[in-house]
Amino acid sequence: MVIEEKLAGGASPADIKDTLSKEMLEIGRRYIDGEIYLPKALIASEIFEEILEEFDLHEGDIGKIAIGVVGPQVHEVGKNLVATWLRCVGFKVLDLGVLAPPERFIEVLKKEEVDIIAISARLTPAICAMSQVIRLLEKESLRKEVKVIIGGIAVSKELSREIGADSYASDFMDAVSQCKKLISKNRASESSF
Q: Can you give the residue ranges of the B12-binding domain (predicted)?
């Protein structure tokens, strides 16, 4: 395999991940520009995740994100794409999977130093669960400790404001951009104390 040859030739795992990440970002750009379609982006993300797993390249240093799909649904394609592209740019991603109850996000936040909670919803009934995550954060006095981004076909920028989320992403590349902005805001507010 090419990666094994590169490692044997002295390339560091970080260099390999950096090269792969640049290629993945190019694939993402081509998807957004309509040059390739979703199946190719999905195949690329699956290959990228397999390489990360095989060579233990998961660690990121930009920030930590807990991501999951809430509500009565098992559709995880969008979540998986977002998680992959977040890893591409250097986030550490904690994947909570599908059917993640609102309480699960709170549990993870209490155990891990999570910077961002990313919630996906494909079906309208899941909006209540998204809102419940934010209410639970408020109830536990954790809301100021974490940024919340929502995405999925059932949500919009207006809804994100309505339920009290910090951001909304229209697709997986927008999620990367929005999460980078949220991390920058977090760092700026931390340095002002």
A: 62-193
> Where exactly are the structural domains of the chain?
1-57, 59-193
- 3-class secondary structure for 34-86? CCCCHHHHHHHHHHHHHHHHHCCCCCCCCEEEEEEECCCCCCCHHHHHHHHHH
Local confidence band at 1 (pLDDT 50, 70, 90 cut-offs): low
User: Residue holding tokens 């991940």?
Assistant: 17
| Two structure tokens written together for 36 | 């390739």
Fold of the domain built from segment(s) 59-193: Rossmann fold (3.40.50)
Amino acid, single-letter form, for residue 11: A
What pLDDT shows up at residue 191?
55
Residue 154 is which amino acid?
A
Give the number of C-alpha atoms closer than 13 A to the C-alpha of residue 20, restricted to the C-beta side.
Answer: 28
Length of the chain: 193
Other C-beta atoms within 10 Å of 85: how many?
A: 29
Beta bridge partner(s), residue 105? none
Q: Give me 4's structure tokens.
A: 């094994």
Q: What angle do CA 70, 134, 172 make, to 5 degrees?
A: 50
List the structure tokens of 126. Answer: 């899941």
Contact 82, 169 (CB under 8 A): yes
